[in-house]
Amino acid sequence: MKKVVMGNEAAALAAKLARVQVVSAYPITPQTIIVETLADIISRGELKAKYMPVESEHSAMSSCMGASMVGARAFTATSSQGLAYMHEMLHYTAGARVPIVMANCNRALTPPWNLYCDHTDSLSQRDTGWIQYYCADVQDVLDSILIAYAVAERVMLPVMINLDAFYLTHTSELLVVPEQEVVDAFLPPYKPSNKLDVDDPRTFGNVCGADLFTSIKYKRYCDGLLVESLWDQAAVKFHGHFNRSRPAVEAYRTEDADVCIISIGTATGAVRLAVDRLREEGMKAGSVRLAMVKPFPVEGFDRATASAKHIIVIDRDVSYGAEGIIAQEVKAGLFDRHKDMTFTGFISGVGGNDITPETIVPLVQQAISGQGEAVKAGKTFWTEVLP
Amino acid sequence: MQSKTVIKRLSELPTMPCTIDTMAWNQTGDWRYLTPLVENKPAPCHSNCPAGIPIPDYLSAVKRGNLQEGLALLLSHNPLPGLTGRLCYHPCQTKCCRKKIDGAISIQEIERFMAGLATEIKNRRTRPSDERVAVIGSGPVGLSCAFYLGCLGFQVTVLDARDRAGGALADLPSKKVEAQVLEAEIKRVVHIADINIETSASFDLSKPREMLSKADLVILDPTGLMEETGMPVGAVSFNPFVDEEICGDIIAVTLSGNLKPFKAPMIAHYIAAGRLTAEKAFAYLVRRSDKEGLKKRRPHLSRLAAKVDDILMGHFSTSGLAADAKSGQEGTWDHDRALQEAGRCLSCGTCNLCLQCVLSCPDASIRLDSDKNAVEVDLYHCKGCGICAYECPRGVITMEEINA
Predict the structure, then answer these.
(1) Cα atoms in the Cβ-side hemisphere of radius 13 Å centred on A2
(2) Which chain A residue has the Cα nearest residue B15?
(3) Residue of B8, B13, B18, B25 to mutate for A, most A C-beta atoms under 10 A
(4) What is the CB neighbour count within 10 angstroms for residue B256?
(5) B238 - beta bridge partners?
(6) Does pTM surpass 0.95?
(7) What pLDDT sits at residue B326?
(8) pLDDT digits over B306-356, tens only?
(9) Is B281 domain-assigned?
């Protein structure tokens, strides 16, 4: 079945198709449609789930954790300030190894007040231990949520599926809605081997000395390193069921690319148009979309940038006192190869500014030619800044 | 106590950070400062009863339909329920916690109903004895004292100069107490305690030695003697509420000013005076006989009472309960009505195994012991948080400084 829906509705549909059993959320623009749609679906009886309206995002995540710990498949959604409010529980849920999936609508952090797209909210949660995935389009929202449950329940880590505010949450696109049976075949019910169970009582998250604590954290670290390959395996399996693939890294025209433009989220569409335009002008450009950002998908990234001599990163976020957060991650990923290539990071589209091919093309040209204001600045260049 | 399982290899660690075996070895009871004491406490009605009747206990028996058990409990503290049910100013009802919900339990009506029950209750003599006690006067103090001494196994004779037993009670107008009610009450006292009452008895208070020839102890009942008589020669004045022990073989019970002369609404106080006299007379006789040196354990009266504030009204729903707490028509209560009214009792201060404590203990350290039919605190693991005491709807659990 095909439907024209917004990204938010696709997220709700995905939760329904995943047969989530508990939804606990607190509404916030631009996420509200997700929880409203799910509340409707549940109240109409189309999804057998418990909908828990709570008084805060902190409680939303806490109750999802409780639900997940007793073996229920749990879903929540938030954005920006709400995500920041959840921060404590993000660490907790990742540490507790509960496979929650959350949709986060990337919105700028205040002040000043701004409802529009910006990735600083979720990227500033990168060290919580959550797996982070950034969607490129409406179909990606639905697909990645289904894959996310498969991966989360395999590796026992929570997954954050990120949707660009308004560019994705409120933009209608054609969506292929898979049949429930097909989804069921891909994603069987969650059956944890270990859970809160009155018939098998045990203490979770109990006091623990330094000896075991270190080992527990180390175990989680090791499991985190498996996530990229687990995701790609799940994506291959997903392809088998749905004939679409959602790998951790998505490359476009990179086979022979000298210049690789790294982006996340919906800006990738504009980057690809820019790549086409740059290729017309004779530049061997390619686009690399980091669908998964945390853990950093080293293998996919290395493959996609194998021929690159110039790396350009467009960040819709910033780490103050440093540079773009994706730029930092990419630099870390490139460390072994940094002598063979140049690196330029731009900050663009912060707080909802549109990232267009017209923005990207001149930036790339300046970075490659070594001339122009973006290069002269001598530091991370911000677009759309007042003169 | 189970031993600790030690994880030695990374592969033994569970994915979720959780225990893999029992934590019972971790005896967190060491952390405790205050200890929950699960102990029934007198309910506010009980504490306020001059005769100290454990009202919730007998109401709970009535609730269960065990009327004879309820009557036995009632009689064990009050041998004259038919009279208290008519005369007493019932301070029990003034303190009834149920007032906060709808209305006080009509304890007095239930008492009257109980008094009207036919009974075959018979005292089991706990200490067959040759010792004889003469009680002079069959007023409420004398009847109560004779009842308890009779129940304790003494040969008790109550002497009354008048042709009717009851002393001051017999002088009450019939609209307060009908003659046949008083008669029935006295008949039950005689029957249960196996005592003798001699009416129209002749005795000479001026010749105490003569009386002592027939008894080991003579007790003069101020509510049973016809008129204010002077203290007989050789008699020792004894106030049961004040004096610790009896010193002398002829004692004249004296009462404080508020109980003199006889006031019918104070009947429960006279009953208490009689019981206290009996307890102390028992101690005196045991001491004097010096047979086995056995000591009668006195009822534990100093227990901390459950306070009205300890009773959590939120736990008791008002729905579906009898709202007509007003006392009904005089003496017309039938079996069903009495049971229904007893059913309204909240059993303040008495554990009725509602298990609210068990449900609310975060450490699962208070549990129902089905063998003992009581809740038991696991002191090896109880950290003393006090949630059980807070949650107990009846104020049975209190947090105490106990050095274990």
Answers:
(1) 3
(2) A97
(3) B18
(4) 11
(5) B253
(6) no
(7) 43
(8) 555 555 544 544 433 333 434 444 556 788 888 889 989 988 888 888 899
(9) yes
